[in-house]
Amino acid sequence: VLSFAPDVIISQHGCDSHAWDPLTHLALTLHGIQAQMQLAHQLAHTYCGGRWVALGGGGYDQFRVVPRAWSILWAEMSQQPLPEQLPEGWIARWRPEWERVQEQEGMEQQVMGKVASTTQFPRTFQDRAEDFPPKPRRAAIAQANRRTAMLARHLLLPVPIRKAFATSPGSLHLSPMTGLFDLLHTQGGESPSRSAMLETARGTLLLRDFCPPSLIERLVADSGLHAFARVPEREHELLLNISRNPDCVLTVAHTPAGEIVGQVTLAFGDEWWEGLDNAYEVTIEVSSQWRGIGLARTLLAFALERAMLEDMILFAMGLSWHWDYEGLHLTPYRYRQLISHLFATQGFTEQTTTEPDIRMDPANVLLVRAGSRVDSSTAQRFFKRIHNSPRLSRG
Questions:
Q1: What is the distance between the alpha carbons of residues 155 and 159, in angstroms, rounded to a whole number?
Q2: Which of 40, 87, 181, 365 is deepest in the core (most CB within 10 A)?
């Protein structure tokens, strides 16, 4: 959504995924269907100024599901509270129709030697939990679904976007980075953030790590800073969200006039790296107008010179489909060499791996730096993981 920058969101809200639908044999309740509506509503207000066109769609339980689902949709769009009970007049009008259909279908089932299912007509807008007993394999199915969603996010989204827009804010495990501010405060500083001045051939730049949201709010993105979100204004929003994430450290380079021209994000490994508590992913971006002067190397060195990073394993991925790659006029393999050389200056080495992002294309590369204070068992677990990446369950 960030890169596409839509003017309006058009969403389709079929309800044939409901457990009572006679055709699809899926198992959603109206609570799940409502969550989809709420997500579309949130996206519209986040990216389109509230411009949202919601359409109906499939749904074949015409008495019990479709009217309730689309009533919930209208309540969501118009921001009206949803009543608990269905109107008695509506029930009186349509329940007899449904009963006649049920009777006819029951006779057809008997002719075919089948036993008709026992169902009842709802009296509430939302589904009742007692009408939908848990599936026998519910836990396994939910776990497989989470891993599928995790894999899709991991393969399709750059880490800054994954970290700025987490799937379940507040519910995921947070890394020790979340307490680092307090830790550094106890070591004598009023703020963990450091700053430095850098003189370049194109002018003076200011470097700042552990950037607080209040700083990013005062800055703007340089017009050439658009690698991840394609539009500088949206790139700024992305960096602001990262700065608000207690599980990330954002380092920026900006001009005295307040234009961000480079950034390094240090983020706790996502769900793919689950179980590796000391693994952090590093990403870097430099404005297309500030390249060729050694800024990337200096900014990366500044972001990674903290002594506490010696307790961590850092990794970075160079991918041939990186959005930042488009304007460089390099072959994929030359880009791979550029990324490898840049991170080699900070002690990163290339690693072979079964991680799917890297295995997809020979031009991709995984670079790793294990801190000097990382114990051998932690390092062994990490390298075992990258050589035997977790796969989706076949259950």
A1: 10
A2: 365
- Which residue is associated with the tokens 């700065």? 243
Beta-ladder partners of 11: 54
Query: What digits encode the pLDDT tens for the residues 237-273?
Result: 889 988 988 888 999 999 999 999 999 999 887 777 7
Amino acid letter, residue 90: W
- State the amino acid at position 378 in one-letter form: T
Q: Record the pTM.
A: 0.67
- Which one, of 327, 155, 331, lies nearest residue 230 by Cα? 327
R_g of the chain, CA atoms, integer Å: 26
